[in-house]
From TrEMBL:
Residues 10-158 form the Phosphoribosyltransferase domain. InterPro entries: PRTase-like, PRTase_dom, PyrR, PyrR_bifunctional. The lineage of its organism: unclassified sequences, metagenomes, ecological metagenomes. This is Bifunctional protein PyrR. CDD domains: PRTases_typeI. Belongs to the purine/pyrimidine phosphoribosyltransferase family. PyrR subfamily. Signal peptide: none annotated. Gene3D superfamilies: 3.40.50.2020. The gene is pyrR_2.
C-alpha cells in the first residue's frame, strides 16, 4: 500500500504572499491596467488565491475587481471515476464575462485537464475576450497544450511526487509541500 511522505517545504506563508504580490504586478503590467478584468478562482484552493490576488491588485491600483468562483465538477473528463454521485458546488460569476479578460486562478498546474475543464465551463457562461491563467505552482507533466501566463513557482517533479498546497481558510496551514509516494 502506497503512503505519502512529506519531502520538503517548497513555499512557506511568506513565499506564497510574495509570489501573489509579484503575480498581481504582472497581471497589471501585461494588461496595461485592470480595465475589463475579472478574476475567477477554480474551486477549491483557486478561490482563496483569486481573492488574495484581487485584494493585492486593489491595494496597487485602488480599484476593486470582480471575483468569481468556478466549479468544474461536471466538466471533468474523469467524472465517472470520481464518485457515483459527485458533489457539485455552485459557480458564482458576479458579472457578465462577455468581452472581458478572465484571469483564471488555480493552485497547481499539472496535466492541464483541470484548466481544460475550466475553459469549458467558462465558455458555457459566455464569450470572454481572453482567458489568462495564473497558478501558484507549475509542476510540469502536461498532457494537454496548456501553459500558465503567471506562475508563482516552477517545480520540476517526478511522477512519484505530489505537490500539496495548504491555504487558509480551507486548511489550518499556509504552505506548499512536496510529498513523495512511497510504495
Amino acid at each position: 500500500m502506497a503512503t505519502l511522505v512529506d519531502k520538503t517545504i517548497l513555499m512557506d506563508a511568506q513565499a506564497i504572499k510574495r509570489a501573489l504580490t509579484r503575480i498581481s504586478h504582472e497581471i497589471i503590467e501585461k494588461n496595461k491596467g485592470i480595465e475589463n478584468i475579472i478574476i475567477v478562482g477554480i474551486r477549491t484552493r483557486g478561490v482563496p488565491l483569486a481573492e488574495r490576488l484581487a485584494a493585492e491588485i486593489e491595494k496597487i491600483e485602488g480599484k476593486k475587481l470582480s471575483v468569481g468562483i468556478l466549479d468544474i465538477t461536471l466538466y471533468r473528463d474523469d467524472l465517472s471515476t470520481l464518485s457515483y454521485q459527485p458533489i457539485v458546488h455552485q459557480t458564482q460569476i458576479p458579472t457578465d464575462i462577455n468581452g472581458k479578460t478572465i484571469i483564471l486562478v488555480d493552485d497547481v498546474l499539472y496535466t492541464g485537464r483541470t484548466v481544460r475543464a475550466a475553459l469549458g465551463a467558462l465558455i458555457d457562461i459566455g464569450r470572454p475576450k481572453a482567458v489568462q491563467l495564473a497558478v501558484l505552482v507549475d509542476r510540469g507533466h502536461r498532457e494537454l497544450p496548456i501553459r500558465a501566463d503567471y506562475v508563482g513557482k516552477n517545480v520540476p517533479t517526478s511522477s512519484k511526487e505530489i505537490v500539496g498546497v495548504l491555504i487558509s481558510p480551507i486548511d489550518n496551514d499556509e504552505q506548499v509541500v512536496l510529498k513523495e509516494i512511497v510504495e
